[in-house]
Write a structure and sequence with these properties.
An 8-stranded antiparallel barrel has the order 1-2-3-4-5-6-8-9. The termini are far apart. It has about 160 residues and is mainly beta. The chain has a single domain, classed as Beta Barrel (Porin), CATH 2.40.160. The radius of gyration is 18 Å and the shape is globular.
């Protein structure tokens, strides 16, 4: 009896998240970023949103791109983050920027940044983030790479992600 109960609980713990993935989204986007190293970069990103929760909705992002600096064109590295949408609110302070405003949904995230064969902690905060049925729009996303303090910080002026 104990084995049957254990197998039932184990199956529930495995299958419950799979059924919750019924409304998952994937997306691809681009962003324009300026960094503390006086570089400008254009980055491509891929997003996986497994849930559609109103509060504390997790999602993952992987991004990479090219930087333009005094030395020329170079690879900006690879960043992988686990992000958390804090909430979704129909009160939208950015409604004047859009013809069809969606919910305002700030997010925070943390992960790693791989640059020149070194791995650094990475974090970002997106306060000006608006969702649409098929898109995520983000303005002025603040991010930083850490070493023994802030190694490099950046601001993504615009990040648009199309969701499928």
């Amino acid at each position: 009896m104990k084995k049957v109960l254990f197998v039932f609980i184990l199956c529930f713990l495995i299958l419950a998240p799979i059924f919750a993935l019924e409304r998952f989204s994937v997306g691809a986007g681009f962003s324009f970023t300026g960094t503390s190293e006086a570089e400008t970069s254009a980055e491509l990103s891929f997003v996986f949103k497994p849930f559609s929760l109103t509060y504390l909705n997790p999602y993952a992002r992987v991004q990479s791109g090219l930087c333009i600096s005094e030395e020329g064109l170079r690879w900006s590295g690879l960043k992988a983050t686990a992000n958390l949408e804090l909430f979704k609110s129909m009160w939208n302070p950015l409604s004047f920027t859009m013809s069809n405003p969606g919910p305002w949904s700030p997010s925070i995230g943390g992960g790693i940044s791989v640059e020149n064969s070194c791995i650094y902690p990475y974090g970002e905060i997106s306060l000006f983030r608006v969702l649409d049925k098929d898109y995520m729009y983000e303005w002025f996303v603040l991010s930083a790479t850490f070493e023994s303090g802030i190694r490099e910080w950046s601001v993504s002026f615009l990040r648009m992600t199309a969701l499928f």
